[in-house]
Amino acid sequence: MYTVEDLAQTLSQYLPYDQVAKVKRAYYYAEQAHDGQRRKSGEPYVTHPLAVAEILSELRMDCDGLTAALLHDVIEDTGISREALTEQFGEGVAGLVDGVSKLTHLEFNSQIEKQAHNFQKMAMAMADDIRVILVKLADRLHNMRTLDAMPAHKKRRIARETLDIYAPIANRLGMYNVRVDLESLAFQAYYPMRARMLQRAIHKKYGQQRIKDTQKLEDHIRAELAADYIEASISVREKHIYSIYQKMDKKRRSLAEIMDVMGVRIVTDRHDSCYRILGVIHALFKPIEGRFKDYIAVPKSNGYQSLHTTVLGSNGIPMEVQIRTEEMDLVANNGIAAHWAYKVSGTSSMPSNHDRATKWVKSLLEIQQKARNPVEFVDNVKSDLFPDEVYVFTPNGQIIELPSGATPVDFAYGVHTEIGNTCISCRINRRLAPLSTQLESGQTVEIITAKNAQPNVAWLSFAITGKARTNIRHYLKDKQRENAISIGNRLLTRSLNAFKTNIDELTTEQIDQVLANHQLTSLDDLLESIGKGRHVGYLVARELFPNYDEETLITPKSFKVNGSEGMLISYAKCCAPIPGDPIVGSVQVDKGIVIHHTNCPNVQDHLSNPERFIRMAWGKEIEEELNISLIVTYINERGAVANIASSISDTDFQVSNLDIIERGRVSRLRLNITISSRVGLADVMRRIKAVRCVEKVTRETIVGR
């Protein structure tokens, strides 16, 4: 059984005596605090924090981190306060324990809001001190190792949240060993039958003569390296079972189609030796085209560095070879935890993955500050938790790391928020390309900006990074508020005209009374609410003048549509009004004003309601381009459709779709066309009617839509 003396012996290899003594004192403090408490397995509870400290000692965690690991359940499960811990072990340790305690009861269940809120808490705790999440990961790893004591339904829940949240965080922090252990244990707990069947299949396919073949392969590579005077350690291993399962599941492949089940890791002492070893490996085995990656020159976003190549082994089975230095191997296995190993050894060569992790956590803070709610926050960081990177270059040669599937919009926000907000187009390898193009490693991307440009809501359909999506939503939200206040101002001004006054003439008492009635804090909030349709301008005006004589009210003027109102003025699809049509506005909650044709069947029953429908008119200078549908009835003869389409081909109007909706001797087709005025519509309809085979052209209205 593992004891505190075993822990102290491990710690004495890298920590000074006084710090080891502090860790031992924390153990005895925890033992006394948890006296009488037992785990589900029946063991004394203190065995759990001791095991967590053991895991962190293997990662060379510092003194305060180990002390916090031993005390991480003291605040939550005993009567000891944070103040008492501060007095005994200092503010640093107490802060870490408090941070871990706040994460103790995270339950990632089916309640999306709760799951999102809890994950947000975890991200904020990481921002305060990243050691909090390291203690939590070690805590989760020991819980997974002792999961058999739990009931079946709890096993599945804990395993699922481990796969969804904790393993991806360990991966993002570069902690390969912890991630592999978490994934393997969770996979076996969540899919026990699949795990057993896959393990049997792997053993059947690769298990026979495996030990003998492995030793032979190691000896062969070692001899070739020695002939070139290269010193290196060599290990041959299978990929862990969950990694194989993921490849089979995502790519819909059988075990036989998975290329790199076997792997060789070669660790050497010098940077340049890695490339010499690569040459030896490619001389020994045939490399598979397109399967070489240089993560030394271009490290992964979590700091991982290594050369990867997949070759055909002597038995014809593909195997992945990883080549790295001892320092790279430490960082690859322990990720951000390697930072403390270097710190306590006093080495000046600090791994950059700590800075990368800190940068990532800071980006989480930026996303959290701009997200509207925890659900949006989690949605935006998913791509950052499951990275499969591409590496692209700025025109001056700087490398930008992005998730697989990223587009120039993600790239623009990756460079700088302001570049993303003002981006209008891009060049990929010096050629103009759509902003929705998926980027590939090695491309050079140049973003073209314009001073008055702004994000487009359509970008949300292809931008995938959390930073890009959050900034686009944040900008659009601010812009929507700005538009809503402007429209609300116009609607309230129009309603106040009926009372022979305007907004500037309202008294502070009048405004405060209405704000209090609707629990709003400012006039802008009231105007925004009116602009978004949550409150009606006419009813707000009545509240401002409750004693006004109805008979003396003036009929409000029409609301002018100028085409520059932004996203809170939209056009009904059921009747597709265009400039020149008689129109009426329907005020809808959170949609603003939806404009209908006055004769639209969907508004006829409601026009008598003055609260939600307002008189509207087109502005004189409006040139809004809107889509309408025309129904063309024609005699079905050879070349009829081509003649109809060509009748408007020499105009400025654009046909977006042509769809034959009825075939026969007399056929009908639907033309979707972009029109900016009734004059233009009349011209198009006249041209179509002039085609010899056309019998009738009508504008389509979708009844009841």
Automatic annotation (TrEMBL):
Class in the EC hierarchy, top level: hydrolase
CDD domains: HDc (cd00077), NT_Rel-Spo_like (cd05399), TGS_RSH (cd01668)
Catalytic activity: guanosine 3',5'-bis(diphosphate) + H2O = GDP + diphosphate + H(+)
Assigned keywords, A-Z: Hydrolase
Domain TGS: 388-449
InterPro entries per record: ACT_dom, Beta-grasp_dom_sf, HD/PDEase_dom, HD_domain, NT_sf, RelA/Spo_fam, RelA/SpoT_AH_RIS, RelA_SpoT
Highest taxon of the lineage: Bacteria
E.C. no: 3.1.7.2
Ranges for domain HD: 45-144
Pathway: Purine metabolism; ppGpp biosynthesis; ppGpp from GDP: step 1/1
Pfam families with a match to the protein in the record: ACT_4, HD_4, RelA_AH_RIS, RelA_SpoT, TGS
Function: In eubacteria ppGpp (guanosine 3'-diphosphate 5'-diphosphate) is a mediator of the stringent response that coordinates a variety of cellular activities in response to changes in nutritional abundance.
Family per record: Belongs to the relA/spoT family.
NCBIfam families found in the cross-reference section: spoT_relA (TIGR00691)
Protein name per Swiss-Prot or TrEMBL: guanosine-3',5'-bis(diphosphate) 3'-diphosphatase
Species: Marinomonas vulgaris
Lineage: Bacteria, Pseudomonadati, Pseudomonadota, Gammaproteobacteria, Oceanospirillales
